[in-house]
Automatic annotation (TrEMBL), chain A:
InterPro entries with a match to the protein in the record: Ntn_hydrolases_N, Proteasome_sua/b, Proteasome_suB-type
Keywords: Cytoplasm, Proteasome
Subcellular location, principal: nucleus
Keyword set includes Nucleotidyltransferase: no
Subcellular location: Nucleus
Pfam families documented for this protein: Proteasome (PF00227)
Protein name, per record: Uncharacterized protein
Source organism superkingdom: Eukaryota
PANTHER family assigned: METALLOPROTEASE TLDD, PROTEASOME SUBUNIT BETA TYPE-1
Automatic annotation (TrEMBL), chain B:
Predominant location category: cytoplasm
Taxon lineage: Eukaryota, Fungi, Dikarya, Ascomycota, Pezizomycotina
Listed name of the protein: Proteasome subunit beta
Similarity section: Belongs to the peptidase T1B family.
SUPFAM superfamilies xrefs: N-terminal nucleophile aminohydrolases (Ntn hydrolases)
Length: 262, 275
């Protein structure tokens, strides 16, 4: 049989009749920017035996309001597409399409965990997994600020906050999104009692700062309401509705209250 | 016997000569230019608008495809009928719209080839028929995938129809994969001009559940007129579709009626007038 190749090439490595791809082509130039900011704000506070996550429901692009009801809070795990029986909540704010993709990935992972291990994932493990998911896209990040809430293995309220590439930390409270710079100082003062001193003490430098105590659920709910009604006044991307999810050992309670639509 | 499996089935060089790689991309030894992606839309369609009402959804878009400021094609149908339950309205790049249309056609074949409910009575009761919500999920994932590949489909889509429970469904997806839904939706210029008018009629979900079919159709027609008055990339001939439990009623040759510029002399606040 006639050889397909000449003698020279027979000695070489096996080869194709056309050149192998040597390296990737030239770096491409892009004018397409794959991100946008959909505005809105989220907030989480943890208590003794509960955690509360809240977010407004407005979705914006520029000065336009896309819709007045686009939830930023998602139940994670549980059963079926409605996540019945779930005890973990993820809130995402920033680029809504990435937020949805992130939520769907975490939800799948948490559901797979239950099928594989026969028990619900702990919030701590879920929190670390979320960090890994975010970091896995370190060089093309999910452009979102995430807050994860649940109940830890001791029955205490647990709250984890993230940056877009997966740095995370467990905290008592955190505000994120468009109005985070308006809400966070309020929470520092009202939840962690920063710059608050015992009023009954005499004036002077030796005053004892107040020690933060775990807050009751009605108190936290009213703080969340105050934070959002104030943010709505001062930030144009925040408004329309306030969605809250309260996680306790018994499950998730969901509430919705209208905010100003202007 | 040739012992190099990668050469099996290939034309023999000693018979046919060396393979000519010139048409291949540069990365494969060819002289082709690098692969290019859409960096901006070329032939474009303008707004799509839609309103949900008590038992269904109305959606409309004009029949113009512009080439920059040139009104290039005047008979381009931008409402795509998918099945008995859903219609997709497409704004933005027209060639990407045609790609999406082919994609939807093949999806429809895939969905119905084996289950094959194509007689009228069968499709009437088919519980597995894709709802508009399923179609929207599919399209939004296509859009998000393409933006993540830095090769976007330069469109803004409205998906209108009924979900699996035959409830009215209306949602949008755009070139970034962003999705949202609401009782009224508008893409492009319509988001500025038509959306405020529609929101006055249907401020929330509850109001859309009170709205009758006739009122919804009239509201959409009024909005198409406002858009023609003020959107320079629009035309007076448009398509309008109503989707409800009876199926899809799509008209593709509607013309704006009762046009009048009588209101123009009462406009104050900008332009050259001094009073």
């Amino acid at each position: 049989m006639a050889s397909l190749f000449n003698a020279q090439s027979m000695l070489d490595q096996p080869s194709y009749s056309f050149a192998q791809p040597t390296s990737h082509s030239e770096p491409r130039q892009h004018s397409f920017y794959p991100y946008t900011d959909n505005g809105g704000s989220t907030l989480g506070i943890s208590g003794q035996d509960f955690a509360i996550l809240a977010g407004d429901t407005r979705s914006t692009s520029g000065y336009n309001i896309n819709t007045r009801y686009a939830p930023k809070l998602f139940k994670i795990g549980g059963d079926g597409p409605n996540n019945t029986g779930s005890k973990i909540v993820l809130s995402v704010v920033g680029f809504a399409a990435d937020g949805r993709a992130l939520k769907e990935r975490l939800d799948t992972v948490v559901k797979m965990y239950k099928y594989q291990h026969g028990k619900d994932i702990s919030v701590g493990a879920c929190a670390q997994r979320l960090s890994h998911i975010l970091y896995s896209k370190r060089f093309f990040p999910y452009y979102v600020t995430a807050i994860l809430g649940g109940i830890d293995e001791e029955g205490k309220g647990a709250l984890y906050s993230y940056d877009p590439v997966g740095s995370y930390e467990r905290e008592q409270c955190r505000a994120a999104g468009a109005a985070s710079s308006l809400i966070m100082p309020f929470l520092d003062n009202q939840v962690n009692l920063k710059n608050q001193y015992d009023a009954s003490q005499p004036q002077g430098f030796g005053k004892e700062p107040l020690k933060p105590q775990p807050l009751s659920r009605p108190h936290v709910e009213s703080l969340v309401n105050d934070a959002f009604t104030s943010a709505v006044e001062r930030h144009i991307e925040v408004g329309d509705g306030l969605q809250m999810m309260i996680i306790t050992k018994d499950g998730i309670e969901e509430t919705y209250a209208p905010l100003k639509k202007d | 016997m040739n012992h190099f499996p990668q050469a099996w089935g290939r034309p023999r060089d000693d018979v046919y000569g060396q393979y000519n790689p010139s048409y291949l991309p540069q990365s494969h030894g060819g002289t082709q230019q690098p692969i290019t992606h859409t960096q901006s839309p070329i032939v474009t369609g303008t707004s799509v608008i839609a309103i949900k009402f008590k038992t269904g959804v109305v959606i409309a878009a004009d029949n113009l495809a512009s080439y920059g400021s040139l009104a290039r094609f005047t008979d381009v149908h931008r409402l795509k009928h998918f099945n008995r339950k859903s219609v997709v309205g497409v704004g933005g790049d027209v060639s990407d719209m045609q790609y999406l249309d082919r994609l939807l056609k093949s999806l429809d074949v895939e969905e119905n080839y084996s289950t094959g409910s194509h007689t009228a009575e069968e499709s009437e009761t088919d519980p597995a028929m894709m709802g508009a919500n399923n179609l929207h999920t599919y399209l939004s994932k296509v859009m998000y995938k393409r933006r993540s590949d830095f090769n976007p489909l330069w469109n803004a889509l409205l998906v209108a129809g009924l979900d699996e429970k035959n409830k009215p469904f209306l949602a949008s997806a755009d070139l970034l994969g962003t999705t949202f839904s609401g009782p009224t939706m508008a893409t492009g210029f319509g988001a500025h001009l038509a959306q405020p008018i529609m929101r006055r009629i249907v401020p929330d979900e509850a109001a859309s559940q009170q709205l009758g079919r006739e009122e919804a159709v009239q509201a959409v027609r009024d909005c198409m007129k406002v858009l023609f008055y003020r959107d320079a990339r629009s035309m007076p001939e448009y398509s309008i579709a109503v989707i409800d439990e009876k199926g899809v009623e799509l008209k593709e040759k509607e013309v704006l009626e009762n046009q009048s510029w009588d209101f123009a002399d009462k406009i104050r606040g900008y332009g050259t007038q001094t009073v």
